[in-house]
From TrEMBL:
GO terms for cellular component: endoplasmic reticulum; membrane. The lineage of its organism: Eukaryota, Metazoa, Ecdysozoa, Arthropoda, Hexapoda. Its main location: endoplasmic reticulum. Coiled coil: none annotated. This is dolichyl-phosphate-mannose--protein mannosyltransferase. TPR repeats lie at residues 460-493, 494-527, 562-595, 630-663, 664-697. GO terms for molecular function: dolichyl-phosphate-mannose-protein mannosyltransferase activity.
């Protein structure tokens, strides 16, 4: 006789439930018009893979656009996620943050629907009510905010999408009507698993979920049956059946084979090397004491579970002091003990409980909770973060399923259906509101960083990002204070030293700046940006040899560094080593063909050296890469004007005005051209336009006065 599951929660129409899920999933919709924030800048805005690199290079670079073979690469190989960014850029021919946010919100809604379908497969027709309530909880959980409202969270969304699709396809493989259909479904399943893994590495864990689903749900083999089998005790008839027909063994063998092939491919792409992180990224991994390291890992597991249970304290970054290490006797040790007591009790329940549908549902919930989290657990390899809310996106589906199963058991035990429904409804409302508020905080960096300050005031990275945001907004005083606070909390924060040094350099405090840059490169030898900035300050202090050495050191650690070549050229210009300056700027434009300042400086230098023909050739070459840069047309016009080619010069000036109609110097110099050309009325008009745009432009005032004198005479 089949056991029946009573949910004690009102059933929802199958035709209505998907619409409710979609509506609830829109709790993040108010982030649709947000900016590119935090990691979005490096992964999308500054990532050449998103907008101009050759297509196949995407498959050779990591998520941040760095070659996988580079020693500084994070080895995060997610080419399909980058391709999704690239497709949106290609459609718009521009980076519009709103487009990316809208796609993320749509993907989350699709995922919530697929979650409902996956739950329905796991739980069957008898558990459809549980499926709906669990999917609704998944749709509104605030832990998803980072994945949905942060554009780089696209990796989690796409990975989750292909993970759920692979589970649905694996289900088709199991119940295929004939061998052909089974092979087609298995092939499609393999494609989806591969796609999930190419969106984010955790996609491969879908194989584990499918294996447990096949064993526990399809073949009704419980953990105790497997233990009895390997201990040669009484074997349940279901296990005997699966061995007799070998269907499950063949499918499990196929899953293992696929997993091995994908892992080998993944490691071969990485060059069979693992990424190297700094201690500030994951301090627990750098602890010498193994027991303390394991204790800290377990405390982080507790925090992950707590964020699922009570997602009040959410932060964009949990490193650098957010979570202090347990180094000796600490009350947090008892938190770990309580966590494992409760979690261990749940695990033991799966071995000693009666064999029924509820137990199988609990096992599936635990599987979805644990399997996708394993890559972030530091068990197999160290990760580059302490705690990241985005990695809980897929595991939260297991948590939501366990919560609703617990709720239905509570209702059955105490016969309180109304109380359970009221509690569930209140929970959905509170989580919806929390998700709405949290997604608002992800709309721009100022809100995001300020919200983190309330959660992790001792996090040096939070203060660093507040300072960076303040500096970009022109609030230099606040930026200096926040950088100093970041350095107080983390005296070895090289990036904060570099940025504070830049502010002091711009403020004329060169000696203080040079001290900070030297500290930064002493802490991080390969910090190429700090080496370049050190070279800039040394050049300003007329320490030319030291400056040149600093620039060469920066280029040693970062071969592709056009800005460094540009500054090296400026150094040679100051020393009147013109040929060296030209070579440095040529290198800058080779590495970055759109480097405007390098092109402009080469044209001006060649003109000053009376190499006008070379200057014109250089200018025309520059226009091939930056055809809309007004300064190039302006410089061509000046060169032609000096050569007496007034008509050609006039055309170039007008091209410059077309691209920069508010540039006062363009009008002023065009006035000079007309002045020389004896078109005095036109010259007067240009001088007046220049003065309208910049009333204190001395050259235009002086030339206009001379024009009036000429007219008067």
């Amino acid at each position: 006789m089949k056991s029946k599951i009573n949910t004690y929660l009102p059933a929802v129409s199958p035709s209505l439930s998907p619409w409710i899920i979609v509506i609830l999933s829109l709790c993040f919709v108010n982030s649709y018009n947000g900016d590119f924030v935090f990691d979005d800048t490096e992964a999308i805005v500054n990532n050449v893979d998103v907008h101009k690199t050759p297509f196949w290079d995407i498959f050779q670079n990591d998520f941040w656009g760095t070659k996988l073979s580079h020693k500084q690469s994070h080895k995060s190989y997610r080419p399909f996620t980058i391709l999704s960014f690239r497709l949106q850029f290609w459609l718009r021919q521009d980076l519009v943050s709103q487009d990316y946010h809208i796609v993320n919100i749509i993907l989350h809604s699709m995922l919530c629907l697929l979650t409902l379908f996956v739950y329905n497969i796991f739980l069957g027709p008898e558990g459809r009510s549980i499926s709906f309530y669990a999917a609704a909880l998944f749709a509104v959980h605030p832990i998803h905010t980072e994945a949905v409202s942060g554009i780089v969270g696209r990796a989690e969304l796409l990975c989750g999408l292909f993970t759920w699709l692979s589970i649905l396809l694996y289900n088709h493989t199991i119940y295929a009507k004939n061998t052909l259909h089974a092979w087609v479904a298995m092939f499609s399943f393999t494609i989806c698993i591969t796609a999930a893994m190419l969106c984010k590495e955790t996609g491969i864990t879908a194989i584990g979920i499918c294996a447990i689903y096949d064993i526990v749900i399809v073949n009704k083999i419980y953990p105790i049956d497997i233990i009895n089998f390997f201990s040669f005790k009484h074997v349940d008839k279901n296990l005997n059946n699966c061995i007799k027909y070998k269907n499950i063994l063949l499918r499990l063998a196929a899953l293992i084979f696929i997993a091995i092939i994908l892992l080998l491919l993944r490691f071969s792409i990485m060059g069979f090397s693992i990424p190297k992180f700094h201690s500030v990224d994951n301090p627990a991994s750098f602890m010498d004491n193994v027991l303390l390291r394991i204790l800290n890992y377990n405390y982080i597991y507790c925090l992950n579970i707590w964020l699922l249970i009570c997602p009040i304290w959410l932060c964009f970054d949990w490193s650098m002091g957010c979570i202090s290490l347990i180094t000796s006797y600490d009350y947090r040790t008892f938190v770990v003990i309580i966590f494992w007591f409760m979690f261990g009790t749940l695990i033991m329940y799966t071995f000693i409980s009666h064999k029924n549908k509820t137990l199988r549902y609990i096992i599936m919930g635990l599987t979805i909770l644990i399997c996708p989290f394993l890559p972030a657990s530091n068990i197999f390899f160290n990760v580059g973060f302490v705690l990241a809310e985005r990695v809980l996106y897929i595991p939260s589906a297991g948590y939501c399923l366990l919560v609703v199963i617990g709720l239905q058991k509570f209702s059955a035990r105490f016969s309180l259906p109304k109380t359970s429904l009221s509690a569930y409804t209140m929970l959905i409302v509170l989580l919806f509101i929390r998700s709405w508020i949290r997604s608002t905080q992800w709309k721009n960096e100022k809100l995001l960083f300020q919200s983190a300050l309330d959660i992790c005031p001792l996090n040096a990275k939070v203060h660093y990002n507040i300072a960076k945001n303040a500096a970009d907004a022109g609030n230099v005083d606040l930026a200096k204070l926040e950088y100093q606070e970041a350095l107080r909390l983390n005296p070895n924060y090289a990036q904060a030293m570099n940025n504070l040094g830049n502010l002091l350099k711009d403020d004329g405090q060169l000696l203080k700046a040079i001290s900070l840059f030297k500290q930064a490169v002493n802490i991080q030898k390969d910090f190429s940006t700090a080496w370049m900035n050190l070279g800039i300050v040394q050049s300003a202090l007329k320490k030319y040899e030291e400056s040149e050495t600093s620039y060469f050191t920066a280029l040693q650690y970062r071969l592709n560094y056009p800005d460094c070549y540009y500054n090296l050229g400026v150094l040679y210009l100051e020393q009147k080593q013109y040929n060296k300056a030209l070579r440095a700027w040529i290198n800058a434009t080779k590495q970055k063909p759109t480097h405007k300042r390098a092109w402009t400086n080469m044209i001006l230098l060649l003109d000053d050296l009376d190499r006008t023909e070379e200057a014109l050739k250089m200018a025309n070459k520059a226009l091939e890469f930056i055809p809309n840069h007004a300064s190039i047309y302006f410089n061509i016009a000046n060169i032609l004007g000096k050569k007496g080619k007034y008509e050609e010069a006039e055309i170039q000036f007008k091209q410059a005005i077309l691209r920069d109609p508010t540039g006062p110097m363009i009008y002023a110099n065009l006035g000079v051209l007309y002045h020389r050309w004896n078109k005095l009325n036109a010259a007067e008009e240009m001088y007046k336009k220049a003065l309208q745009l910049k009333p204190d432009l001395y050259s235009a005032k002086d030339n206009l006065q001379r024009l009036y004198t000429l007219k008067g005479s």
